[in-house]
Amino acid sequence: MAAVVEHLYTADSSEEEEEEEEFPIEPSNEAVLESLLYDRESHNLVLVGCDGGKVTAHRHVLAARCPGFSRSLESNPDGFTTQKIEEYPASVLQVVVDYVYTGKLKEQEPTEDNGPLKWGNQRIQLLNSSHFFGLKRMRDEVMVQLTPKTALLMPEVASSGSRTNGTASKIKELSYLQLQNLPDETMAEAMPKGVLNALSTPVLTEIMENECLEATRRFEILSVWQGARRDAGDPDLKETCRDLAKSIPLHKIPPTILATKVKNSGFIPRDWVFKALEKQALNAETACGFPFFSSPKKKKRIKLDTGTCERSMPGLDA
Asked: Region annotation Disordered: residue ranges (predicted)?
């Protein structure tokens, strides 16, 4: 943290009074702040959103607090007062600028005037803009608004400690889970194609009431990430999916969900599924009767606690 000291003068006194205001300055922005702080001529920066609206802010505040804006300021040093940012509408930029000034994100909820569709789309835009402008804290706060159950879904991501191992991708994709509480038309507008398909199954109530909540929710998250990875082609997300797949205790997932959902995941080897079924001591007919195993490609002998059977199953080594 660094302190910006502004000198205030009164008409009747020549004494100088100091008032300190704390600014969370990124180390790389200190030089920019130094050059702009008392440059009153270029104090204002007008941001023009894609909807034609205008948002006004002070250049030195943006330089001190926002890495994304600072990069723009450094790349346009010569006397500009207007910057066009076509990616986001003015309503979203206003929320971003308000956060830069106050350090607080307005916790708006869907209302009659600001319905679930509009609210959901704006939160997604805020999430993207926080990444665009390098506002990591704002990104995390948007995630809290989108996913109030984040602590249940992924405790190590929701913690306030260090964030590593592709967390940006984790948090971004995790946010879409909360949108399943919104109407179908909202999801269709606000969510990528693969993510929407992954969340379309009506299993949320069953999952929330199940004693194996954590394992099942992680399995749902993997389905979401898998769909998002296909849409975005994100290599970091691919590694995240692999790590998450290894961390899921499959034997704790209800067999009905396991059988219907695992076929959509490219990160769960099928022999893992059979080991999970064995641990659950399922009988042979139940295990071999799942639709997931209906494609006759290779034969594998499955040993269960209740017996042995032989049936054609895909993707298994003979």
From this structure: 1-22
d(CA 173, CA 240): 11
Q: What interhelical angle do 167-175 and 213-232 show, nearest 10?
A: 100
Q: The domain containing residue 315 runs over which residues? A: 269-318
CA gap 172, 224 in Å, rounded = 11
pLDDT in the model for residue 98: 84
Identity of residue 260: T
Residues above pLDDT 70, as percent of the chain: 19
Q: What is the DSSP letter of 57?
A: E
Helices (H), the chain: 30-36, 59-65, 67-75, 90-102, 116-132, 136-146, 150-153, 155-158, 167-175, 184-190, 193-198, 204-209, 213-232, 235-247, 255-261, 270-279, 284-288
Q: Full-prediction pTM beyond 0.70?
A: no
Q: Quick check: is 299 in a domain? A: yes
Both tokens assigned to 159 = 């913690």
Mind listing the pLDDT tens digit for each residue in 283-304?
333 444 433 333 334 334 433 3
**Do 283 and 242 lie in a common domain?**
no
Name the burial class of residue 75, with classes exposed (0-12), middle (13-18) and buried (19+) by CB atoms within 10 angstroms of its CB: exposed
- Per residue in 132-153, pLDDT (tens digit) is 788 878 877 776 665 443 333 3
Residue 94 lies in a domain: no
As for how many domains the chain has, the answer is 2
Band of residue 313 on the pLDDT scale cut at 50, 70, 90: very low
CA–CA distance, 73 with 59 (Å, rounded to integer): 8
φ, ψ dihedrals at 194, nearest 5°? -65, -35
